[in-house]
Specification:
The chain has 523 residues and is α+β, with helices and mostly antiparallel strands. It has eleven helices and 21 strands. Helices cover 24% and strands 29% of the residues. The radius of gyration is 26 Å and the shape is elongated. It starts with 5 loop residues before the first strand and ends in a 12-residue tail after the last strand.
């Protein structure tokens, strides 16, 4: 631990300040000296938000050189908040009187207090970069914007540029990870999902937990956190947990060791695990869009617009039964207009309840999982969506469910019943503005702990081939008629099954994030 109290006059480019490090070493405070005119306001830098402290000027640090002669200057690098929830790297240079050795004392004291208050900061990271994902800029983003920050913070990064699918998964499952404090995904949502799936699977394997079995299985939370450097086309998970898709902001969250628990949904078919989901598990419209877009990958990102327009014009609805277990009715609800933000009390309180009642959680027919009663809804649905977060993204800032929480052990079930194509388009358009997308007679939303969906009189989709139905959609031959059933999409991946059960695992994984900061935190 550094000096318990340090105070001295120091010069900055803004003038002379009386700089102090009060007892406890939590903040660095600077007060303009009375004799200094035009030095501007003082400053207060939280030690927990300091990235590094180095002898010399900021330019010396960039050149990786040592100051010549008397080492009477030092630089504090810290988090600086910008508009739109973005963070940047700020720096403040200090100059001490010559031959006073004050600079060395200040650096030693601040570095010691950073270490004392930053016990959750990673020292070694395993970084996976997907060069082919999303915008195909992941390598440049990491080398140009992220790697220099990690180096400044003294973080050792073992970097793997993947060259094929499941390469990150195989490494996580089979290699020794004991020397790492966390994993970092540089790419899009698909890259993050591969890393997350592998980490969950590795954790269950090592503990002897059978994750394939649905009933009575309690999944263990991995001790390693996951960082997301956004380099994809949508980056929904990053946007919903940080509030912006900015690589520097995400890197700074990783450096200071932020930790945000995240609910994960497990999706099963006939009791066997199919996949995990953290953003959207959808049947109907979104599954049709994802499935159709895969046939037009040559179109690039435009394939989603094409597939979406095609699905809207087709206006397909699917008959089925939705069973769901409602969450605690005394808790939050998906239409209460709240927002899950940094330090969310709903998530904090829910985490305590989940820990207290975790031994009772199952999804068996006889017992049901911890929560409220089961309800059943039958009908024709344009979309059945289950999301355990807002699923916000730059094109839809409010997301599918604006009041969903990141770590309250629940998901929001959104049911869109059969309606006209124009009415459905009205519902979709509300995802891009502040209008209430649930305030429509054919839309209902429920906060749930578990969901079961059964399609009517159909089997599973085999090899992605869906049988055609006689009737035609509104767009005639372009849409090739309607289909008797859809499949599920799970965070952008198509699942070739219709009947599934979904269960929420509260706070199963942890990210290097803190949730979206309140607007008042941003100058």
């Amino acid at each position: 631990m550094g000096e318990t109290f340090l105070r001295s006059p120091l010069r900055t480019r803004r003038g002379r300040f009386l700089v102090s490090l009060p007892a406890g070493g939590q903040v660095l405070v600077g007060t303009p000296e009375p004799a200094e005119r035009g030095s501007g306001p003082g400053f207060c830098i939280p030690v927990q938000e300091m990235v590094a402290v180095r002898l010399g000027t900021a330019q010396d640090t960039k050149r990786d050189s040592r100051p010549a002669g008397d080492e009477n200057s030092f630089t504090v690098f810290f988090i600086q908040r910008e508009k739109g929830g973005r963070w940047s790297l700020g720096s403040l240079e200090f100059t001490a009187p010559p031959e006073s050795e004050l600079a060395t004392r200040w650096v030693a004291a601040l570095q010691s207090w950073i270490s004392h208050h930053g016990t959750s900061r990673p020292k070694s990271l395993l970084v996976f970069i997907n060069p082919a994902g999303g915008r195909k800029k992941a390598v440049g983003i990491y080398r140009g914007q992220v790697a220099p920050l990690f180096a400044l913070a003294g973080i050792h990064a073992h970097v793997i540029e993947t060259s094929r699918a499941n390469e990150a998964r195989e490494y996580i499952l089979h290699q020794d990870l004991c020397n790492f404090d966390g994993l970092v995904s540089v790419g899009g949502d698909g890259t993050f999902n591969e890393v997350m799936h592998a980490l969950i699977e590795r954790t269950q394997r090592k503990a002897g937990v059978e994750e394939e079995e649905e009933a009575g299985t309690e999944l263990l939370s991995p001790h390693l956190r996951i960082g997301i450097i956004p380099a994809g086309s949508t980056d929904c998970v990053c946007f919903a947990t940080v509030g912006t898709n900015d690589p520097v902001t995400s890197a700074l969250h990783i450096i200071i060791g932020d930790s945000q628990p995240l609910d994960v949904c497990s999706v099963h078919h006939n009791g066997k695990l199919l996949r995990y989901s953290v953003s959207l598990a959808g049947y109907g419209f979104y599954a049709d869009v994802v499935s159709s877009s895969e046939k037009h990958r040559w179109m690039g990102p435009a394939r989603y617009t094409y597939a979406g327009a095609k699905a809207v014009l087709s206006n397909r609805s699917y008959k089925g039964t939705v069973e769901f277990q409602v969450a605690n009715p005394e808790g939050s609800n998906p239409r209460d207009q709240t927002r899950c933000q940094s330090g969310c009390l709903v998530c904090s309180e829910s985490t305590q309840h989940l820990l207290a009642g975790s031994e009772e959680e199952t999804l068996s027919e006889s017992e049901g999982c911890a929560g409220g009663e089961w309800q059943r809804v039958k009908g024709h649905f344009l979309a059945v969506n289950v999301t355990s977060m807002s699923s916000a993204c730059p094109k839809s800032p409010e997301g599918l469910s604006p009041s969903a929480h990141l770590a309250d052990g629940t998901a929001d079930l959104i049911l869109v019943r059969q309606c006209s194509a124009l009415s459905f388009l009205r519902h979709l358009s509300r995802h891009t503005n502040s209008s209430d997308q649930f305030d429509l007679p054919f839309v209902s939303v429920h906060r749930v702990r578990a969901v079961r969906f059964t399609a009517s009189n159909v089997g599973d989709c085999e090899d992605g081939e869906l049988p055609a139905q006689a009737r035609k959609g509104l767009c005639g031959g372009l849409c090739r008629g309607g289909l008797p059933h859809s499949c599920w999409t799970c965070d952008g991946e198509t699942l070739h099954h219709t009947d599934v059960s979904i269960r929420v695992h509260g706070g199963l994984v942890h990210l290097f994030a803190r949730g979206i900061e309140r607007a008042s935190c941003v100058p």
